[in-house]
Design goal:
Helix content: 25-40%
Strand order of the largest sheet: 12-11-15-16-20-19
Shape: globular
Radius of gyration: 23 Å
Structural class: alpha+beta
Number of helices: 13
């Protein structure tokens, strides 16, 4: 079933959370009595609900009302299933601690997801809690099903997952020791608390196994966090770490240069997205969109349709930058076809053109190498007690740490060479 999420900022309920906070334990005990809950599984479920509401700071949190839905022990530190969560949310709603929207089926295979949101009175109790997060699992493994649904699945650890988990644990501990805030442009007023985030990496099951029958974890691997949802041009420059201003650096043309590094050992010299077709200069954002889509598409026609859809979605945007890009798209499409832009791009990058138009399997492997490279830098910074926030292929650090970051970005290599060989 396809779902309609009326609030695009709504967050998915996270079953992997736990906390050692004494303040949270005290609040759980009080609410457990006030709401007349009477089973230990409900107390654990109450703690998990409050953890999500604290973590997402006033946002709507999407939940499942399907009591038949099962949660794997690996991803459920508090051993609180859907049935317990539903009992808890019903009790909290009755006590006017949360607002609850119950999902429902709609015609044409659509539906509205159920969601919860803390009331002002509950938020007042949650806000002062010092959240000391403990994580049940930082290395997630996802199955993408044919019907479009996605589900976390269990797996057998291998040396790579054990190492990644240890690295993420150290990284999360470092982030937990600093203060991260979004401020207004003057830097004087705090707009949003960005602390208490859990950085996990989510890999995709592509069926590839090692000689012992264990998944390779060579697909996907990206992370998500609160700072990733901020508007890059408007908000991320105003992130402060321990009261100090930050800056953001990224890998230029990350996906393309990751492929070049993996296949040739060096990055592309120049801008890989600089391109002209029949004497017509193609805007960089247009070339990048064609390249990105073709890396995950299995055909020229599919690439053309997807790129066209992406730009048509910008037509109704209120952002000036989006309107400019849509205007560029219209202007270029009157002169050049997307398939001609794609062919010119692939001709320019002949040494790696065989990596394109091979579907999401290759695209997800490239994404994994990108993520591995980013976290290799993160791990080096963590060893030096330098906090950094990642947004796909970029790093946010204190301005005073710029030089160290720049050096590490140029000297750090892929941590698992076998995965690099696998891409080739």
């Amino acid at each position: 079933m396809a779902f309609i999420i009326k609030d695009p900022d709504a967050k998915n309920f996270n079953y992997t959370l736990d906390s050692s906070s004494a303040e949270l334990t005290a609040l759980v005990d009080n609410l457990f009595e006030e709401t007349n809950l009477n089973r230990q599984v409900h107390k654990r479920g109450l703690k998990l609900v409050l953890l999500n509401l604290i973590l997402y700071k006033g946002s709507k949190v999407l939940i499942s009302r399907d009591n038949n839905s099962k949660k794997l022990a690996r991803y459920n530190a508090l051993d609180a299933g859907v049935t317990a969560i539903n009992t808890v949310t019903d009790a909290l709603e009755k006590s006017e601690c949360i607002h609850c929207i119950t999902g429902k089926n709609l015609p044409y295979g659509n539906g509205i997801r159920s969601s919860i949101q803390a009331t002002d009175s509950l938020n007042t109790l949650l806000k002062p809690i010092n959240l000391q997060l403990a994580h049940s699992e930082l290395v997630l493994f996802r199955e993408d099903k044919e019907d479009g649904s996605k589900e976390l699945i269990d797996y057998t650890d291998n040396p790579r997952t054990i190492r990644i988990r240890e690295e993420l644990t150290a990284y999360n501990e470092l982030l937990g020791s600093v203060n991260i805030e979004l401020r207004e442009q003057s830097g004087l007023t705090v707009l949003k608390d960005l602390n208490h985030q859990v950085v996990q990496r989510k890999f995709i099951d592509n069926g590839e196994l090692d000689i012992q029958g264990r998944p390779l974890f060579n697909s996907g691997g990206r992370s998500n966090s609160a700072w990733m949802s901020l508007s890059g041009s408007d908000e991320r420059p105003n992130i402060f770490i321990d009261g100090q201003p930050t800056l953001e650096l990224d890998y230029e043309a990350s996906a393309i240069n990751v492929i070049y590094r993996a296949l040739t050992g060096v990055v592309y010299i120049g801008d890989p997205y600089s391109l002209s077709v029949c004497g017509i200069e193609i805007p960089r954002h247009f070339v990048k969109a064609v390249a990105t889509v073709s890396l995950n598409s299995d055909g020229v026609k599919g690439t053309s349709v997807s790129v066209g859809s992406e730009y048509k979605d910008l037509k109704t945007s209120l952002k000036v930058a989006d309107q400019k890009e849509y205007s560029d798209y219209q202007r270029i499409m009157r002169k050049v076809k997307i398939m001609d832009i794609l062919e010119a791009f692939l001709t320019k990058h002949y040494p790696i053109r065989h990596m394109f138009l091979r579907g999401t399997e290759v695209g997800n492997k490239v994404q994994c190498l990108e993520s591995d490279l980013v976290f290799a830098v993160v791990n080096e910074l963590t060893k030096r007690s330098i906090p950094t926030l990642t947004v796909h292929d970029s790093f946010i650090v204190k301005a005073s740490d710029k030089d160290i970051l720049e050096k590490l970005m140029t000297t750090t290599g892929f941590p698992d060479q076998d995965l690099v060989k696998g891409l080739i």
